[in-house]
Fold this sequence. Notes:
- There is one protein chain.
- By secondary structure, the chain is of the alpha/beta class.
- It has helices at 40-47, 72-80, 97-108, 113-126, 142-155, 172-188, 200-206, 224-228, 234-246, and strands at 2-11, 14-24, 29-33, 55-60, 63-66, 82-85, 160-164, 192-196, 209-214, 217-222.
- The chain contains nine helices and ten strands.
- The strands form two sheets. A six-stranded mixed beta sheet has the order 6-7-8-3-9-10, with helices on both faces. It has a four-stranded antiparallel beta sheet with strand order 2-1-4-5, with helices on one face.
- Strand 7, helix 6 (172-188) and strand 8 form a beta-alpha-beta unit.
- Helix 3 (97-108) crosses helix 4, helix 3 (97-108) runs parallel beside helix 5 (142-155) and helix 4 (113-126) crosses helix 5 (142-155).
- Adenosine-5'-diphosphate (ADP) binds next to strand 2 and helix 1.
Amino acid sequence: MIEIKNLHCQYGDHKVLKGINTTIKKGDKIAIIGPSGSGKSTFLKSLNYLVEPTMGTFESENLKVDFESISPSEIQKIRMKSAMVFQQHELFLNKTVFENILLPMTVVQNIPMDKAMKEAHEILEKVGLVDKKDKYPLMLSGGEQQRVGIGRALAVHAPLLLLDEPTSSLDPELVGGLLSLIQSLNEQEERTMILVSHSLNFVKEIANRIIFLYEGEILLEGSRDYIFSGASNPILEKFLYNLKLAN
Ligand SMILES: Nc1ncnc2c1ncn2[C@@H]1O[C@H](COP(=O)(O)OP(=O)(O)O)[C@@H](O)[C@H]1O
Ligand SMILES: [Mg+2]
């Protein structure tokens, strides 16, 4: 379980997150929806300390971090709690698919080479890339690169998987494949994930809880049915209306 309290984040003077409070339970599949610029990516990045929150606390099992006084060793610990799949796949372009998945284990986690290689093969199977293992990322399609990104995130062994608009760079016919990949990952083992997506189908199929982020705050959160009903909230209703037009 991860508990986030009063999380604030800003770029220069531009306040983006204005006090986020939420609890992420083991096995949760949380979808974050909200208008462009509402702070969705910033929220995911702050969970992985890829941006530096200015205030707030992060609590998880044996770790309690106050962002105002975070230490280098706490930064390392917080980063190990989650793994992010990026909007643009940030893969090592000069490394093969296999190496992209292997390196988080050998370099970052110091897992012995034979064990890491065995697991990298297992991950390749999970993400359906065994036959592409010796290719370089630029030789792959967007959908395949996305799978490498997910494979690499799995190799980090973090309890929380963060997915930022995983379908946004995919051709429409590839979205179904990514959806079934994520569903099969969920079936294989209990996984906790936070997903940012503008795809209503994706959100409906995966999420058990939805957060509506609006201008840097959680305006509403709840079950799929509650949020997709509009929750009698005119801001959410308008957002959903526009989203349906775009879907
Ligand atoms: N690295 C950055 N430097 C300055 N401003 C940023 C940076 N990243 C995001 N922003 C600004 O912060 C706000 C929230 O951005 P973001 O978290 O990316 O929103 P979302 O993912 O919901 O579209 C936007 O106004 C965006 O322009
Ligand atoms: Mg974003």
